[in-house]
Design brief:
Elements: H1 10-29, H2 34-51, H3 68-73
Length: about 70
Amino acid sequence: MEKKIDLCSTEMNEVVKEVREMRMKISEECGHDLYRLLAHYQEVGERLRKTGKYKFHDSESPSEKPTSKDEAAD
């Protein structure tokens, strides 16, 4: 039998609160700079990927993705 998670429970609210606090802390550490945040999360992702402990979905390589210029030409 699959255990259902009550998304409105006090326990879940505490988890969501903790996640939001951590995200805010990371954002503050990056000076709320979007590019620094992106670099931080990419670095964390690479470290996690190297551990082999987690599975990642690899989308198209950056060279295969259309750029905004390519999209505008369509």
